[in-house]
Design goal:
heterodimer, A: alpha+beta, Beta-Lactamase, Alpha-Beta Plaits, eight-stranded mixed beta barrel, six-stranded antiparallel sheet, 28 strands, rod-shaped, B: mainly beta, Immunoglobulin-like, 2 domains
């Protein structure tokens, strides 16, 4: 098994328990060792003290026996008689005889002056001093005295008693030599090592008897002063520690005798050593078991956890194929089961999220994100293969109208139908996507721009087929922009943008489809810079109003003019309205322009009114202006400010303008009408407004679009439209104005049809204020007739 | 050890016809009266009268010598009658007189004659605790103190050395010289005693 890393769970669990175990066991072993040694020492000390008492008791006992024997000897009449006779020979033989009776090793006799009378050890020595006068002194008091003394360098247990007749007449001393036998007897009783040592006056130690084996005796002698200290102590003999007690047994003229009571510390510690060994073995065994157990338990946890970690990693990498194994009923298995549920959940949700992220929910076509993704991939592939890739932007032409007039459900149905048709038409290798709103895009991985033109035409054709909504056929057209790689750009994003630009061009040109041309971008760039310049133009009064007169066909009088905005750019010169008005409408800046125009027009109307020129001014209002109340408030305020009668101001609204939000437009128009303004429907005939709606409008004037007027003389259809419109207008009680009159024939034609007012280059082009006023003055003085006249 | 010192005070009585009594008092070092002490006088001239010594008796009653001490004049015969109904074996190993009276009862046949001056310790070989003393003096003038510690000597006029002896004395006291001339004389002795351990009779 490989050594587990410390960071792993199982290693940490095992380590914790092992450390815990070792700590506990170490404390235990330490306790056993420390207290064991202390207990052993105390125990030995106790044994030694008890041993000493036993030892002394034994000596006393032996003294008593010896004393008894001595007394018996001393009381012997014959003995006393011998002493009384001072018969030395007899005395010595009596002493020897009586000593032999009790196995005494020495018998001495001293007179009352403490002079030796006889000594069995030294028979020839006479009249010497008795060597133990202190013992006699003790015996005088106690009738008996005993001690352990040195005689000729050997220790003897000696007892002294008086010889009574009946008062003391002499002292008899009897002694036993102390040898190994005595030591062994004591050891048998006290269970201690016993050694008898003597220290002579010259401090030399001699060992006399011992239960120790010979080598230890030698060691003991080497330690020299081993027995010199009374009390408990320790002594090291041949590397082994002995606890020692050294009672002094007695002293005499030759020196003192010491008994050494000893017990080996090792003997005392033996049970504790055994206990420690058992503990050590137990520790090792339990450490092994702990490690094994911890590893097993930890593995049962960490293995499935590692497995789960592996699965989690594969989930991170997007692989949902692995499953956690669920075994048993424990917490880990519950975790594994939950893990699997989580995995399923994540997988399902991811698919759903992916679907939502890359699919248009309404049409189930790919969405913009997916389209861009595929486009990028296609471009990357195309770069390698050098195949062309084309992108189409498709924008439905009349979707907003349908959506607004028939509701969102109808709009959604249209979108779904368009999606279906596109799907059906295109190959599987092509990608059709809905980018948002009524915008669709097609990716043709292998299409050149020319090949794509054919596809675009087919798409246009299929979208020309009316869509059935609630049983009614609805026309829906489309404009398509095309851009191709590598012809137009080498980046997917840019291609899409180019296709968009081309699409707008197609839409504006009403040409169905357009293939991208870099020149489109120039116009676009111009427009962008125009916006900021237009702002400046409004602020710096670069704009000005030109006035185009309208002639009353019945009276030939000029009573009305249309105000038209003109932009004199400081560097570009004259900027035609077609270049900035649609653009201003797109960006919403048109409201600011309208405001400027209305202000100027009302101001001018006020001036002319004061000059009694009696000229009403028409102003073009954009669709956006109808969507708020600002215009109403502005007009009301301006009329009041410049003291202009309301009928002197006419607002022209394009027919399509009403259709954005008919209800709102109607409301705004109602309020404007209430101010007393004159309202006119501009470009009539180009839109789709119904007559029913037209009937509701509070307008007083219809303005026929120039596209009909310009060709009516030659074109029968246009003539019919103009005629019908005039009749329709009159029938609804409205005045009819025709614009775009460029020749006398047109004028005469309209006059015949009963048109009320006309406007056009034939009468006058739009003129600056001063020129218009001069033109008007000249006309009024030159031709005061009510007939219409040439300019 | 208590130093041995004694004081002898003689009360010399002025006797008519040239004789007077000496009253001696013996105490120990604590001042307690010392009975059984022997007081005797030796004439300073050294001339001893040739008086016949009087016999003495040392009884054995209840396994004790009675009296404890008897002073006798040199050459005096002493009998040792046994008043107990058991036998005794009286002996002495003292240098002044060594003898033994083998097991006997009643009165032994012959008295023991003490022919040397000095103390004689008496024992019984059967009863170790029995102890008694015969003190043999050369002078006919001796007495033994009573329980009060007093003793009385009747002496004719003259100069004397007064001496004292007791079995348990540690050392012999020096003689005290007194002059007897008709009047009663007082004398006192202070003895340093060292009695042996009592042995219980059995």
């Amino acid at each position: 098994m490989a050594l587990p890393r410390l960071r792993s769970l199982q290693a940490r669990i095992a380590l914790f328990f092992v450390i815990l175990l070792i700590t506990v066991q170490a404390v235990l072993v330490l306790l056993v060792s420390v207290s064991g040694e202390r207990i052993a020492k105390d125990r030995i000390a106790q044994d030694l003290l008890v041993g000493e008492r036993v030892f002394r008791r034994l000596i006393e006992q032996s003294n008593r026996q010896l004393g008894d024997a001595a007394r018996i000897l001393a009381a012997d009449f014959g003995f006393r008689t011998a002493i009384a006779t001072r018969d030395y020979g007899t005395i010595v033989s009596v002493l020897a005889n009586h000593g032999a009776r009790i196995d005494a090793n020495v018998v001495m006799l001293a007179d009352l002056d403490r002079k030796l009378l006889a000594d069995t050890l030294h028979r020839e020595q006479r009249a010497a001093e008795f060597p133990f006068p202190d013992l006699i002194a003790l015996a005088e008091r106690d009738r008996q005295a005993s001690s352990i003394v040195l005689i000729d360098g050997k220790p003897y247990q000696v007892v002294v008693v008086p010889v009574l007749a009946p008062v003391p007449i002499a002292w008899v001393a009897m002694g036993f030599v102390i040898d190994d036998r005595v030591a062994l007897d004591l050891q048998a009783v006290a269970a201690l090592h016993v050694t008898f040592l003597s220290e002579r006056k010259d401090s030399r130690w001699t060992l006399h008897a011992s239960t120790l084996p010979s080598p230890l005796r030698a060691a003991l002698i080497e330690t020299g002063t081993g027995g010199s200290k009374p009390g408990l102590g320790f002594m090291n003999l041949a590397g082994e520690e002995y606890e020692t007690l050294a009672p002094v047994l007695g002293s005499g003229p030759e020196g003192r005798v010491v008994a050494l009571l000893q017990r080996s510390l090792r003997e005392g510690l033996e049970p504790f050593e055994r206990l420690r060994t058992i503990l050590l073995v137990m520790t090792l065994v339990s450490i092994g078991m702990t490690i094994a157990g911890s590893v097993l338990i930890a593995r049962s946890v960490s293995r499935p956890v590692n497995r789960l970690a592996t699965i989690a990693r594969s989930i991170r990498d997007g692989d949902y194929s692995l499953k956690a194994e669920v075994e048993g009923q424990d917490e880990i298995s519950e975790l594994a089961a939950s893990f699997n549920h989580m995995l399923d959940g994540i997988s399902t949700r991811e698919q759903e999220i992916l679907r939502l992220a890359y699919e248009d929910t309404l049409t189930t076509l790919p969405n913009r994100a997916m389209f861009l993704d595929r486009l990028k991939q296609a471009v990357l592939t195309a770069r390698r293969t050098s195949d062309p890739v084309s992108v189409m932007m498709i924008d439905l032409d009349r979707f907003k109208v349908i959506n607004d007039s028939l509701g969102h459900a109808a709009g959604d149905q249209v979108l779904r139908e368009v999606a279906d048709r596109l799907r059906e038409l295109l190959r599987d290798s092509d990608t059709v996507a809905r980018l948002g709103g009524d915008e669709f895009a097609v990716l043709l991985p292998t299409g050149t721009a020319d090949g794509v033109a054919i596809v675009a035409q087919r798409i246009l054709r299929t979208l020309e087929v009316p869509i059935m909504l609630e049983g009614q056929p609805v026309d829906i057209g489309a404009s398509i922009g095309v851009a191709s790689f590598p012809e137009h750009d080498d980046e997917g994003d840019s291609l899409l943008r180019h296709a968009d630009v081309a699409m707008y061009v197609a839409k504006r040109a009403n040409s169905g489809y357009a293939i991208y041309d870099p020149r489109y971008e120039e116009g676009r760039q111009t427009q962008l810079s125009l916006l900021s310049e237009l702002r400046r133009a409004v602020e710096n009064d670069e704009l000005s109003l030109f006035y185009q007169p309208k002639i009353d066909l019945k009276t030939g009088a000029i009573r009305r003019v249309e105000a038209l905005v003109r932009w004199m750019h400081p560097t570009r010169g004259f900027v035609p309205p077609i270049e900035f008005i649609p653009f201003a409408e797109q960006t919403g800046y048109i409201k600011r322009v309208t405001r400027w125009v209305v202000e100027k027009a009302v101001q001018q109307a006020g001036e002319w009114h004061r000059e009694r020129l009696d000229i009403a001014i028409s102003v073009n209002i954009s669709t956006r202006d109808l969507m708020s109340n600002e215009l109403v408030d502005l007009v009301a305020a301006l009329l009041q400010k410049h003291a202009v009668p309301a009928e002197q101001l006419c607002l022209e609204i394009t027919e399509s303008g009403f259709m954005e939000d008919p209800a709102r437009a109607l409301e705004t128009l109602g309020r404007l009408h209430a101010l007393g303004l004159r309202l006119s429907v501009d470009d009539f005939g180009t839109g789709y407004s119904s007559l029913a709606y037209l009937k509701k409008l509070p307008v007083q004037e219809l303005k026929i679009d120039r596209s009909f007027v310009m060709h009516m003389v030659e074109d029968e259809d246009d003539a019919t439209i103009v005629r019908s419109t005039i009749e329709l207008g009159h029938n609804m009680g409205l005045e009819v104005v025709a614009e775009g009159v460029e020749d006398r024939a047109g004028l005469e034609f309209l006059k015949r049809l009963g048109c009320d007012q006309v406007q056009g280059y034939y009468i006058s082009k739009p003129l600056p204020t001063q020129q218009f006023v001069e033109w008007l003055a000249a006309r009024r003085t030159a031709e005061p007739r009510p007939e219409a006249a040439s300019a | 050890m208590i130093a041995a010192r004694s004081t002898l005070v003689l009360a010399l009585l002025a006797g008519e016809a040239g004789a007077a009594a000496v009253n001696a008092m013996v105490t120990d070092m604590t001042g307690a009266a010392v009975p059984e002490a022997v007081i005797y006088a030796l004439p300073a001239s050294g001339k001893l009268p040739s008086a016949a010594p009087r016999p003495a008796v040392m009884d054995q009653v209840n396994k004790e010598f009675v009296p404890f001490v008897i002073p006798v004049q040199l050459g005096a015969p002493v009998t040792f009658p046994n008043k107990d109904n058991i036998r005794h074996h009286v002996y002495s190993f003292s240098p002044a007189k060594t003898f033994d009276l083998k097991l006997y009862s009643g009165k032994p046949a012959n008295p023991v004659v003490f022919d040397k001056p000095g103390p004689v310790a008496l024992g019984c070989n059967i009863h170790d605790w029995m102890v008694g003393f015969v003190y043999v003096v050369e002078s006919p003038w001796f007495a033994k103190t009573a329980k009060t510690g007093a003793a009385k000597l009747d002496l004719s006029d003259g100069e004397y050395d007064l001496k004292v002896w007791h079995p348990w004395q540690r050392a012999e006291l020096p003689a005290q010289r007194v002059k007897v001339s008709g009047a009663e004389t007082q004398a006192s002795f202070k003895l340093d005693l060292n009695p042996p351990p009592k042995v219980v009779p059995h």
